[in-house]
């Protein structure tokens, strides 16, 4: 529970926010296997629970490309900040690798009969919504990115925290990708936010976009849960919905995420006011070494325009 208690300096209005980010993180060129030996209901044989994780995976490739593109648009604004520029590069590479590995994950879902393409068409439509803001569309895209990065960091923290047992009973291969993604979301959680503030982004847009993004995101996840459960033949199963509700609200007490989500609405918010350092340290000690790193350098390029700086990735690169 204490992990969710914000540090006492949270309300310290005088804190200079950029100083609170440790922001040292690596790019890990890892690979995961999603072959047919992975059980279809890989999380404890619980169908709706497994589908909930799979559901989140289906939004990552398009979502993370959107993040990369939104941040890349403001690259010029951080040109004079060497540290932040390096962080943007590492953030871009991490997200591009997440995209690649979740595409492999989602290919497994396709083999299981999930209509990933149909889901992605719906996600793509939502990601075009910032265009409605006309001249403000890039600002809105970046603030939607900071909002969703706050969510991914909160969920990541939730997965790594020791008072939750989110992945207990999960297939170890799938648990590994979720832990890795959770850790890296925590590592780079302040990058988009720092670009947002450094490029002159203000409080009002940030807060309003968080409200809208949260509603749209969770409504979409619920809709997709329904879609995937329907393709699995359990959309009308009260027992399955009850099992999912029990997992989220009783076993995991996911509503614990509400207070740190609300913290985002402080004008003095900075992502590192919720300190993940100890959790990350432990993940690096216990899990990072067990990952399978690609042997040869691979080029990871996000399929977005403008194209982010190419990131040659020979295994684990040195920290930023
Ligand atoms: Fe990611
Ligand atoms: Fe991220």
Describe this structure in words.
With 320 residues, the protein is mainly α. 54% of the residues lie in helices and 2% in strands. It has ten helices and two strands. Strands 1-2 form a two-stranded antiparallel sheet. Bound molecules: fe (ii) ion (FE2) (2 copies). One fe (ii) ion binds next to helix 2 and helix 5. One fe (ii) ion is lined by residues 67, 95, 149, 152, 185, 188.
Sheet with most strands: 2 strands, antiparallel
Order of helices and strands: HHHHHHHHHHEE
How does the overall form come out from the CA principal axes? globular
Q: Give the C-alpha Rg.
A: 19 Å
- Determine the N-to-C terminus distance: 31 Å
Class from helix and strand fractions: mainly alpha
Spans where pLDDT lies below 50 across 5 or more residues = 1-23, 301-320
List the main descriptive attributes of the protein structure presented here:
mainly alpha, two-stranded antiparallel sheet, globular, disordered N terminus, binds fe (ii) ion
């Amino acid at each position: 529970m204490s992990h969710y208690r914000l540090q006492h300096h949270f309300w310290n209005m005088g804190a200079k926010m950029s100083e609170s980010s440790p922001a040292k993180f690596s790019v890990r060129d890892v690979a995961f296997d999603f072959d047919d030996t992975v059980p279809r209901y890989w999380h404890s044989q619980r169908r709706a629970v497994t589908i909930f994780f799979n559901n989140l995976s289906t939004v990552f490739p398009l979502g993370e490309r959107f993040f990369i593109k939104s941040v890349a648009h403001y690259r010029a604004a951080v040109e004079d900040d060497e540290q932040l520029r390096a962080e943007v590069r590492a953030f871009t590479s991490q997200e591009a690798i997440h995209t690649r590995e979740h595409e492999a994950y989602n290919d497994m879902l396709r083999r299981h009969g999930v209509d990933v393409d149909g889901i992605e068409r719906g996600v793509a439509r939502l990601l075009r919504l910032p265009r409605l803001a006309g001249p403000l569309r890039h600002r809105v895209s970046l603030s939607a990115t900071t909002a969703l990065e706050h969510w991914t960091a909160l969920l990541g923290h939730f997965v790594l925290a020791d008072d939750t047992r989110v992945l207990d009973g999960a297939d170890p291969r799938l648990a590994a990708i979720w832990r890795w993604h959770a850790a890296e979301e925590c590592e780079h959680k302040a990058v988009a936010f720092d670009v947002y503030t450094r490029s002159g982004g203000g409080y009002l847009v940030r807060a309003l976009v968080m409200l809208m993004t949260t509603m749209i995101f969770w409504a979409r996840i619920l809709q997709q849960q329904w879609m995937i459960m329907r393709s699995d033949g359990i959309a009308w199963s009260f027992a399955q919905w009850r099992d999912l509700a029990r997992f989220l609200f009783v076993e995991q007490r996911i509503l614990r995420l509400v207070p740190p989500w609300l913290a985002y609405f402080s004008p003095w918010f900075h992502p590192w006011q919720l300190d993940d350092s100890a959790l990350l340290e432990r993940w690096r000690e216990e899990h990072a070494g067990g990952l399978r790193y690609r042997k040869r350098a691979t080029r990871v390029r996000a399929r977005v325009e403008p194209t982010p700086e190419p990131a040659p990735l020979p295994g684990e690169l040195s920290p930023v």
